[in-house]
Design goal:
CATH class of the largest domain: Alpha Beta
CATH architecture of the largest domain: Alpha-Beta Complex
Strand order of the largest sheet: 7-9-6-10-8-11-12
Shape: globular
Number of helices: 9
CATH superfamily of the largest domain: PurM-like C-terminal domain
Structural class: alpha+beta
Oligomer: single chain
Strand content: 15-25%
CATH topology of the largest domain: Phosphoribosyl-aminoimidazole Synthetase, Chain A, domain 2
Number of domains: 2
Length: 292
C-alpha cells in the first residue's frame, strides 16, 4: 500500500496506547465525542491556478466535516490553523466561505492559528457529537455484510483532470472544487442501525475504502462495477480517484433494509487473507500517495 500506511504502522508501534488510532476519527465514547484532524497543502491538495480563496476554504472545511459524517457523528465544532502568504483579501474571502459552510452544518468555529509560510497550509480539527448514534469503525465488517455506498465516484478526479487540461464543463469541475457530502445518509445509518458497521468516506478513492475495510475487518469484499454510482466513463477515476467524499459502508443485512440513502454494490466474505474483487477479478491497490 501507499507509503502513508508504512508511516502509520511505525507510529502505531511507537505509541504505548494506540487503541484510539486506526480510523479517520478518534471515538471517545465516554465523552460522546469524535475528533478528526486533517491538512490541505497548496500544490498537493489544491492549486490556486483554478481555485479561489473561497473555493479553498469550502473544500478544506467539507473534507474535514466529511470525516465526522463518515464516523456517524454530528459535526459540532471546528478549529482552523492557516498558514501562507496571507493578505486582507485572502483572509476575508476564506473566512466568509468558512462561515457559510459551518452555518450550513450548524457548527461553530472555536479557535485556531495564523502563521506565515511560503505556501498555503490548512490544518483543521472537527469535533463531532456521537450521543444517541451508532459510531462506525472500519474493523466492524463481518461475513455476509452488504457493501453499500451513498454518493458517486470518479467525478472529482474527472473534474481535476478537466481543470488541469482546460476542458470546460459545468459539472465535474464544480464537484472537484466543492464536494457534495452525504449528511442525511450519515444520520440515517448512525441512527437506524442496530449492529456494528464499518464506514469511510472516499477521500482517497473507492478501492482505498474497500481495501482498508477488508484489511481491518479481515474479510474479502466482492463488488460489481456496474452497481457503482458514477457519471464519468473513466474506470480508473471511478475506482481510484479520490476526493469525492462519498460514503462507503459494510452493514448487516437486516440494517441495510432500513437504509434509503445507500445502494448495494457488493458483499463481504470471511477470509484469513483479505482481498478485494471487482467483477470477480482481484483488484490491486492503487491509492493516492501523499509521499510520492
Amino acid at each position: 500500500m501507499a507509503k502513508e500506511f508504512d508511516f502509520l504502522n511505525i507510529i502505531n508501534n511507537k505509541i504505548d496506547n494506540p487503541d484510539y488510532l486506526g480510523d479517520d476519527c478518534a471515538y471517545l465514547k465516554e465523552y460522546n465525542l469524535t475528533i478528526s484532524s486533517d491538512s490541505l497543502i497548496e500544490d498537493v491538495h489544491f492549486s490556486r491556478k483554478y481555485m479561489t480563496p473561497r473555493d479553498i476554504a469550502k473544500k478544506a472545511a467539507l473534507s474535514n466535516i466529511s470525516d465526522i459524517l463518515s464516523s456517524g457523528a454530528k459535526p459540532e465544532f471546528m478549529t482552523i490553523n492557516l498558514s501562507g502568504r496571507l493578505d486582507d483579501s485572502f483572509i476575508e474571502e476564506f473566512y466568509e466561505s468558512i462561515n457559510e459552510t459551518i452555518k450550513e452544518y450548524d457548527m461553530k468555529l472555536i479557535g485556531g492559528d495564523l502563521t506565515k509560510s511560503d505556501k498555503i497550509a490548512i490544518a483543521i480539527t472537527v469535533l463531532g457529537n456521537s450521543e444517541g448514534r451508532n459510531i462506525s469503525s472500519r474493523k466492524n465488517a463481518k461475513d455476509g455484510y452488504i457493501v453499500a455506498v451513498s454518493g458517486e465516484f470518479g467525478s472529482s478526479a474527472q473534474g481535476l483532470y478537466n481543470l488541469q487540461n482546460n476542458i470546460k464543463d459545468n459539472y465535474f469541475s464544480a464537484i472537484h472544487k466543492c464536494p457534495v457530502l452525504n449528511k442525511d445518509a450519515s444520520t440515517e445509518i448512525a441512527c437506524n442501525t442496530k449492529h456494528p458497521y464499518a464506514m469511510m468516506d472516499s477521500s482517497d478513492g473507492l478501492l482505498d475504502c474497500l481495501f482498508q475495510i477488508a484489511n481491518k475487518s479481515k474479510v474479502n469484499i466482492k463488488a460489481e462495477y456496474n452497481n457503482i454510482p458514477k457519471k464519468t466513463d473513466n474506470r480508473d477515476f471511478v475506482l481510484h480517484g479520490g476526493e469525492d467524499y462519498s460514503l462507503v459502508c459494510a452493514v448487516h443485512p437486516d440494517d441495510f433494509k432500513n437504509l434509503k440513502h445507500f445502494k448495494a454494490i457488493g458483499l463481504c466474505y470471511c477470509s484469513t487473507n483479505p482481498k478485494v474483487f471487482i467483477d470477480n477479478i482481484e483488484a490491486k491497490y492503487k491509492g493516492y500517495n501523499h509521499f510520492e
